[in-house]
Design a protein that fits this description.
Blueprint lengths: L5 E6 L5 E2 L15 E6 L32 E2 L4 H7 L3 E2 L3 E6 L5 H12 L5 E5 L4 H11 L6 E5 L3 H11 L3 E5 L16 H18 L2 E6 L12 H5 L2 E6 L6 E9 L7 E7 L2 E4 L3 H5 L10 E8 L2 E13 L7 E4 L3 H15 L6 E7 L11 H13 L7 E3 L2 E2 L5 E2 L4 H10 L4 E5 L13 E5 L2 H10 L1
Parallel strand pairs: 6-10, 6-11, 7-8, 7-9, 9-10, 15-19, 17-18, 19-22, 22-23
Antiparallel strand pairs: 1-2, 1-3, 4-5, 11-12, 12-13, 13-14, 15-16, 16-18, 20-21
Helix pairs in contact: 8-9
Length: 457
Amino acid sequence: MAKGRKTVFFCQECGYESSKWLGQCPGCRQWNTFVEETVSPAPAEQKGAGGGSHRIPDPVPLSQVAVTEEERLHTGIGELDRVLGGGIVGGSMTLVGGDPGIGKSTLLLQMCRHLAETKQVLYISGEESLKQIKLRAQRIGAFEDRLLLLCETNLNVISQVIERKKPDVVVIDSIQTMYNEEVSSAPGSVSQVRESTGVLLQIAKGQGISVFIVGHVTKDGNVAGPRVLEHMVDTVLYFEGDRHASYRILRGVKNRFGSTNEIGVFEMREEGLTEVKNPSEFMLNGKPEGASGSVVACSMEGTRPILIEIQALVCPSNFGIPRRTAAGTDFNRVNLLMAVLEKRLGLHLSSSDAYVNIAGGIRMNEPAIDLGILLAVVSSYRDIVIDDKVMVFGEVGLSGEVRAVSMAEQRVLEARKLGFTTIILPAVCMKNVHNIPEVHLIPVETIKDAVQYLTRK
């Protein structure tokens, strides 16, 4: 081993450093996550803060800090702007993660196409050749000359190119392929990913360049590499969806410049990703008519109401222990709601298999869909057909009460826009819903009230 180098162990989940291998990480408590890497010590002049050559900054009183509105750069893609909080902030760093083949590179290339109309954009790829990028770009459309392509993985070379070209936006695809010559470990290792991100972060903050980096994900769905990677960047976006389905969902899990509750919905087509302006209509496409066990509920994603179809199938069990399956929502929550039905309504579900599904493959965990899950289960159990023009929402407590949810009026307006005429909602939400024509509101205080309304129909 070269003089001055030492071997350390890094946790692949959180980046915890140890001088010896550990079975369980003391930082994140995960098992078997330590990997061995060889690192080189920093030069003597970079060690410590007392070298004398560095100027020590003076603290600034909070009252004297000037605050100005962040100028945002619109990407030309409305759904992406929504998730980013209104556009790209200058000098920000955004991490985009997702499964292989989900469309991360396609989305960023489409963003670069719109930005290149007015800004200088540099697209750096460490995975594809220039011809491969060109073939993908031809399916998207025509590009301006302001979009520059570079196939390189050396961070030192990339830094020099950025310094010379001075682009407004830089895209790195992907961070796991980049390497820093000063770090002796292989590309994609914990040290390389952390150091490479640090170099790009200095470029973004020091020169005011907006940087987008693509990150591979593990089998658990998290960005590969140390967890500190997500802490270093300003925004973390996850591109979700079944690669065999046509829709994609862009979700923000961290955003220093906006809300983390917003989502963007896209549809994958031959010419690339297309925005879905009305996700509710898209999710309800193909809903069966006159079938029991199906009901439409409303969930909020940030400021956007999305109508979804909840399906339930309840049938007698052939085994001693009935099966419970939930797709698109929390499995434990479904078991809890079914226990409420048994206790408060006397339904004997202990001898029946129950399957709950949110159609379209989207995943929703908001408590406002509780009432929809319950009514779908009751509809299937009693073979009651719920009217196609009925929409429900409300949180259900363990006592069987229907509790209030936020933004009730926005949910009702979204339902009316799509032609729903009857809304079952919590009674305590009526004071927040003003007179809305063409809609019949059914306030309920308990799940018994909601079930009685369905049986009367």
